[in-house]
Queue: 4 jobs
Job 1
Amino acid sequence: MERIYASCDAKTWEGELPPPREVILENVADADGLLSLLTDKIDAEVMDKAPRLKVISNCAVGFDNIDIAAATKRGIVVGNTPGVLTETTADFAFALLMASARRIVEGDKLVRAGEWKTWGPMILLGQDVHAATLGIIGLGRIGAAVARRAKGFGMKTRYFDVNRNLQAEQELGVEFTDLDRVLSESDFLTIHTNLTPETHHLIGAEQFEKMKRNCILVNTSRGPIVDNMALYEALRDGKIAYAALDVTDPEPIPKGHPLLTLQNVIIVPHIASASVATRTKMGLMAADNLIAGLKGEMPPNAVNPEALKMPH
Ligand code: DGY
């Protein structure tokens, strides 16, 4: 924020919860730039209320909250924060994988509830991570960073993506295959794809039918990629063993949601990139994208660089 305040006049929303829609609509009227969070829906209506808007800087790598086509059409460049959160997010995906495989959250709850009576040969038996098969949906930066961790753990890895990542295939020994095979052969399945109309509910009832009954699903990407009600039924009916979710649909997941009644699910509040160092880097990157866009320059990380060629 200091970097931004030093380069322009900025109004900030100080509330803990995202600004209500009407506050966004009202305040963009005279804005040249907008710094948004992934909780802010920035669509054509917002852009139409902002005739001066030149840049939208999203403080996230994901940008499904922004209508990119609408921005490009209006000559508004959009920035995001790729790269700096890759390793931190991969660490967290692996932490969720390990925590669910070895039932760490359940163990902690049992101890705190005073239910640890003795060592027992059958208490909280989990699944081995080493030598298991990890399926990765989306082998971009974060997916590849997870594959690297899996290699260190002696896992077999395969992936599905609309684009092949030959470098990661060679360097990490991760095998490219179709979605059905990833679903049917994986002991662990981790999602690292963007949310788009094509990936919305990519994992639903039909996909759970194809998965191994011991499969553990990890999602650190976007909640709507998984059909949450189908996931609930799959976990309840033993079609898969466990899920570990950093993201849900909606967010926050409402109190009383059926998923929260299950023991075989871990849900945390969208914190995969939440290390001090990484959030600092994301903030600085978002500030730099904003400041460049305000000057009419190309932001260091632009999602739609072609927007600068459009009449504004
Ligand atoms: C992102 O950047 O898209 C994450 O979801 C939050 O860090």
Note: The chain has twelve helices and ten strands.
Job 2
Amino acid sequence: MINAQTDHSWWRQAVVYQIYPRSFADGNGDGIGDLRGVINRIDHLRKLGVDAVWLSPFYPSALADGGYDVDDYRDVDPLLGTLADFDELTARLHEIGLKMIIDLVPNHSSDRHVWFREALAAPKGSPARARYIFRDGLGPDGSEPPADWPSIFGGPAWEPVGDGQWYLHLFAKEQPDLNWDNPEVRADFLHTLRFWSDRGVDGFRVDVAHGLAKRLPVELPPWSELRTRTGAGQHPLWDRDEVHDIYAEWRAVFNEYTPPRTAVAEAWVDADRRPSYASAEGLGQAFNFDLLQSDYDAPSFRTVITENLELAARSGSSTTWVLSNHDVVRHPTRYGLPPLGAKDPDSVIAKHGADWLRSGGTEPKLDRELGLRRARAATLIELALPGSAYLYQGEELGLHEVAGIPADQRQDPAFFRSGGEQIGRDGCRVPLPWTATGSSYGFGSGPAHLPQPDWFAGLAVEVQDRDPDSTLALYRAALRLRRELQAEESLTWLDTGREDVLAFRRPNGWTCVSNFGSEPYPLTADEVLLSSSPLDGDELPGATTIWTRPA
Ligand code: GLC
Ligand code: CA
């Protein structure tokens, strides 16, 4: 076995488990998940068999955007614990051989960050305002916004501060965009990278990595022009070429450590722009959200897989596979709804399930069983692919999205800022069920900060732990086998004679066969190692994936 401490490429084919800390486990019963909760449940991660944890933001925050509004980049939210708890968690993860990846949110701070408070207190044109993006309003008294741009969560992207100036926030108004042309901003983030790396953090997930570098012309273009403007690397707001100068500086810091600290970019950019984020001179890896945006459909999966292996080869990085995260409808639910068809050209973020959420979970009709069956099949494909896989907490339980959260209990700013047009992401952030009973199904000794549905009881960790056919058992078996079978980062497609059946083989013979259709597919003489659903004699049923090796 490879020694992870000295292995500089541990991340290339790692399985990373995303923890959304306020919803994972609550250690003190106040209804909000915390670091003690994660420490208490660390055995779940060990038994699951993942290689690393990615901790979504745990920093002090007023939770205007689930913690992606950071008050202080170098501290822990007192509701979640202390720096000492953080160190303990990191040490405990390391003890059981897991890496710690933390979420870094550099595009914007929160409006409670000391810098933003200083900016508000300081006059127009001051150095304090130069750390953010302030502009004069239009009209004689500056009471009109500098431009008509909408924020990603709905509502305007410019907010007035009362003296004729406005600041830019591409997300919620509590998330002012930082000015990355400012040397002080740059230096401070290098400090933050070292602060956490010195504490033993192994890697960083970089939020909105394609947004940092901006070039706003004096005359701000209207949104009608901006939204359609592309021109690789030259958009005023997104994916500018200069953003890579920032990551080159970060890379120098990452490489001060042994093994070098890693990073993965959350960059919603065209596929052919991804390799620069993933290059060894930059962040080193970039999320590929193509599977997450793809319908459950064999030709789509095949295209996505082929394209992304080619892109990874171009950057020298490994590719990343994601089926669910804290921003999208969970994949069992997506796969149990009618296919999305073509992507919405106006939206980078997958919208699959949006109508269903808006209807409170009634329209269109969700086939829960089929959705889960397909999700299990898709997961076995994901875990057999070359590269690394990012799992989202709760997917190992086969959880569906929670619909029908009452409006007065919703938390996502997208819901409020869009006037309810976007239901938002609360449905995948509902606290996890650990036990079949208890006030919050074992999430904590008290309540849960988002309402949990009754069906959580049957899917609790303790229930699935006893059931060899559970989704939890499948994930555990798959991760154990994956470790044994792991091979070089390539695959060969096998001819299946059917468009709805995909099969690929890794260089050591590890083979994955997936039947996306409904007609059974005859098995070969190969030894079956794992199956996402029970086999039917010597046939592979529909919506089922198997792992095999030559007999
Ligand atoms: C990223 C995060 C998302 C957050 C947004 C703004 O897309 O994944 O949860 O709302 O950035 O920080
Ligand atoms: Ca708590």
Note: Residues 65, 68, 105, 171, 207-208, 266, 326-327 surround alpha-D-glucopyranose (ligand 1) (CB under 6 Å).
Job 3
Amino acid sequence: MRTTDAVWLAPGEPQEIQSDLVSRFHEEYGRPASGTWFAPGRANLNGEHIDFHAGRCLPMALTHGTYVAAAPREDGLLRMRTLDASLDDGVTTVFADQIGPQAKPAADDALKDDSSGHWSQYVHGVLWSLRELGASHPDFHVTEGFGADILVVSTLPIGGGLSSSAALECASILAFVALGTPLGLQNPLDDLNAALTREHRKQLAAACVRAEVEVVGAGTGGLDQTAAMRARAGKVLSLDCRDFSVQPLDIGCILRGYRLIAVDTGQAHRLADGQFSDRRAEAEAAAQLLGFDRLRDALPEKPRKADVLHVLEEFDRLAEQLESVAGRDIEACRRRLRHALTEMVRSEKLHHLLSGEAYGVRHITSTVGDILTAGHMSMRDDAEVSFTVADLVVETALAQGAEGARLIGGGFGGSVLLLIAPAGVPRLTAALEKISRNIRLIDVAPSSAAHAL
Ligand code: ADP
Ligand code: MG
């Protein structure tokens, strides 16, 4: 019989993980690693499926994340291996000058005719996008002939909606910056953290987005990479995706006497496949019908429910004579539209609550809880990206006294975030264990952004 402790996924001790990783690196590549870089996963209070509509998102970095040990090469080869048991297929080698969108790099025995879908795309993708960035930004100019040996290990669930993909991208790009660009080479390795300005971090996050969109082919909107690259300890990052400006907001007012817990359902998603893109395309078709390139512009600065109803009425009026919206089902487009708009309203409300602008809200924790749960209903009924286990986890959490709970991440698998008083946690974990043996719990203690160890 499992003990309740087994339900918790520990973040591990960074120093121990690092020292284990560098000794594995030595075994694998026959030489020492030059350094280790870390990037965190994230959990969102709100803001799912709206980063690409220029909405506001509210991510926090987890203490769980991805570690990349690396050493530079001068022969232009990039050799990569992951220690994740489900993905490890030995060392993958690519020519660093043959990578990029639609590239099918292969240079050794692990020769793959088609690398699409392979995890290593996230790593060579960011080397490619860093080189693109470096072409116009001298700090990031990648040294001619640069290559690297890379070993990866993660304490995050992979495909669990906690953004292991962005963690891999961000840890890898920091390794490449440190080992192959003037910004890294002009500073001792552990000074990289101080050398990276906010603007640098913003540019690197954008480069990671390019890699995921253009090389991996996943429709990510920038939320995950911004969280991993720009999060702050103890803060929720209020990210305005109109211009990718961020405002770190104190989370203390929510967590006083409460805990945020992410529940990995054990059901992994695959964002790179069609369902996520369909949802996005339906929402974008609705935005186009309304005449907006960015759906956020359909709402006022401080939007309310009435504004959402107004936009929906306008959609109904425009769609009345149509049989489809850009070839897509009208009702489906309307539901995606409603999710995006109500999610934007929830984000703005949370932003004002957490930034202390919303006076008169006495029970901030229960208000935040209600917003979480409303977000779940919207993910379930309007975005239609939830799934049975996630719905069960949310129902169970609420029945066990959680203030609120919602699916986070892209959906079709992934994790639920819940807010609960510590006294309720033992009963909650016992109840969750009954739902599925694969469930794992993660304590969400908002942490700092990607860094060199
Ligand atoms: P999420 O970001 O929510 O975890 P994604 O589907 O966006 O889920 O990303 C998961 C993919 O990212 C994996 O299938 C794999 O290709 C890659 N990945 C993430 N972490 C690792 C890792 N530690 N080792 C190798 N590949 C990884
Ligand atoms: Mg991801």
Note: Residues 66, 82, 84, 87, 119, 122, 152, 154, 158-165, 168, 269-271, 409 surround adenosine-5'-diphosphate (ligand 1) (CB under 6 Å).
Job 4
Amino acid sequence: MKIVTIIGARPQIIKAAALSRAIKCHYANKIKEVIVHTGQHYDDNMSQVFFDELDIPRPDYNLHVGSASHGVQTARMIEGIEDILLKEQPDYIVLYGDTNSTLAGAVAAAKIHVPIVHIEAGLRSFNKAMPEEINRIVCDHCSTLLFTPTKAGLENLKREGFPIKEGCPSTLRGTASSTTDIPTIDNPKVYHCGDIMYDNSLHFAEVAEEKTDIIERLEVNGQPYILATIHRDTNTDHPERLTAIFSSIIKLSEECQVVLPLHPRTAKLLKTNLDEHLQKQIFGCPNIKLIPPVSFLEMIALERHAQLIMTDSGGVQKEAYFFKKPGIILRPETEWVEIVETGNAILTDADEERITQAWKHFKDNPPTLFPEIFGDGHAAEFMLEQMLDNFASTH
Ligand code: UD1
Ligand code: UDP
């Protein structure tokens, strides 16, 4: 069986590590993977670092699309991906998450009848102002095999008309579809399984402690700190929202150190969307460590040692949960609703008052119960088994 995997943005490169690792360990003689990097992320610390560190095979193709408006960036990707699919003639295209690289892969593949496997299917924010919401809806509805990481994801697919068995999910993972026909784009098959990022977090957690010295380098060893990341366009592109978030960071830094690896989008927009006084406070505050994006192993080490994690990232809010840390989610809603429902994270939006209240709440009541809602760390093997089974049934 031959698959073409599309990656492009940082989290997709990390997710792909789990699938490539499972292919290498269990299915090297059965699955050939062709990796296509769209070039959506291209700085070394947003892309190359993950190949170096996570043992991901080098991409077979790099489209080098770079940054551009949504339309231009996606169009360039579609053109490049279509050429590769026609040349490679894969049995499946594998798409992760909800970025423009995901959308481009879905549109290119669906039009030339390459079956799509969507990993992280069914997640919804119910906010179509988010570019990611459009990307995930389109991708899900063009897919043949859909792997949903959570119960909420499965319920969303059911609501949108996907054929889901009653009472599912009753097990950790399994087929959720009520139909047994051979899956196609018109008759897709849905599986409930764990989250592929959980596979990675478990796999790399111990390695992170051995192989990185970021905790020592930042001199936060044994000291409480808040780990923060901010990159959503709704936060970075609106001066009043970015100001509210950074004002709250200044406030929290009076009580606790803050470590903030800056996404390049945020690094650029800080300079235009915050007034000079706030910029001076942020850059001059000894308790705020603004650092360039870190590697995945460094990020895991930072997450494991943090007192609390404050983020608008999808991946980072889950990793907070994986490592049993309270989370402040700098968004009005989340696709990962279970984290909030269990009381382990609070949605504060970009609201200074709510952020401060959430910090106080978790400082006084650190959460202790983190039920296993993201599987058992073996989602990638399960997905590959299902792909192979479906491939066998059609050949
Ligand atoms: C993208 C995804 C988002 C995901 C995030 C992960 C879309 C619509 N958005 O957002 O869902 O959460 O990746 O990080 O696909 N830039 C650089 N160097 C880089 C990459 C980006 O400087 O290597 C800067 C450029 O100024 C660029 C901006 O960051 O314009 C935004 O990059 P882009 O890939 O368009 O969106 P992200 O905000 O990264
Ligand atoms: N991450 C990283 N270095 C950083 C910030 C994040 O390795 O400096 C990792 C993080 O651990 C997670 C993933 O990148 O696995 C999340 O990516 P991001 O926040 O860019 O996007 P999202 O998950 O919101 O799509």
Note: The longest helix spans residues 70-88.
